[in-house]
Specification:
Layout: E1 12-16, E2 25-31, H1 38-45, E3 60-69, E4 72-81, H2 85-90, E5 98-106, H3 110-114, H4 116-126, E6 131-137, H5 149-158, E7 162-167, H6 176-202, H7 208-225
Parallel strand pairs: 2-4, 2-5, 5-6, 6-7
Antiparallel strand pairs: 1-3, 3-4
Helix pairs in contact: 6-7
């Protein structure tokens, strides 16, 4: 999670549901069992109205939106995966070029939490450098809680590459802006690191390593531009 002392470093603005061919696209995957609220979270992130008539995602729904972090516009493509882990396991392109992966469970559904290990293993089989978020949705159902914070912390500690954890209520909008900010800033920091690595490599143009990084950097950026 973003440290409070660092919050003043970033200004995040949602720019709307749009797509530009001139911008690189960064992929966000939202994963978890049916009924945990993945689609509702995404609709809230994109400032859309919630459809109260629940209809589960059949395979994958894809949407694009843009944010501005400080002075940089970032284009995000968000993938809403159905709650079938067998489908996810067999659909390898689901994970290609994933910048951020969000594992979602519902605090009132113990099975959705226990199933996270399967989702985590599928994700790690197909990607290695995505930033992992853990989200406990439906925090408005505290009186029906089946997943204790202590158990979540244990899970998080067992998989120490999970960088961010907090609870949300997509229904009420609680912590949705916080989630949007964390997604945007995480990608922003990835971009800055790539740019810094590239600039450092270019300081010694005669180096073979520098030349290789130059090629790999531009390959990576071309791949990200067309993510589907």
């Amino acid at each position: 999670m973003i440290n409070e002392k660092d919050e003043s470093m970033y200004k995040v603005e949602y720019l709307g549901d749009k797509f530009s061919k001139d911008l690189l696209t960064y992929k966000v995957n939202v994963l978890g069992l049916y009924g945990v609220g993945k689609t509702t979270i995404i609709n809230k992130l994109m400032k859309k109205e919630i459809d109260n008539d629940y209809s589960p995602t059949i395979s994958v729904d894809i949407a694009n939106f843009q944010v501005k972090v400080n002075d940089k516009i970032i284009q995000i493509q968000i993938w809403d995966c159905c709650g079938n882990d067998e489908f996810a396991q067999s659909t390898k392109n689901l994970f290609v070029n994933t910048s951020v992966a969000i594992l979602v469970y519902a605090i009132n559904d113990k099975n959705s939490f226990e199933n996270l290990e399967e989702w985590y293993n599928i994700l790690k089989t197909h990607t290695y450098d995505s930033t992992l978020f853990l989200i406990g949705n439906k925090s408005d159902l505290e009186n029906e809680r089946k997943v204790n914070i202590e158990d979540v912390e244990t899970f998080k500690n067992n998989y120490n590459d999970i960088k961010i954890f907090f609870e949300t209520s997509a229904k009420k909008g609680e912590n949705i802006n916080k989630l949007l900010e964390n997604i945007a800033i995480s990608i922003f920091e990835k971009i800055k690191k790539e740019e810094n690595d590239f600039e450092n490599a270019m300081k010694d143009k005669s180096s073979n390593i520098s030349h290789k990084l130059d090629i790999e950097f531009h390959k990576k950026r071309r791949k990200k531009k067309w993510i589907c």
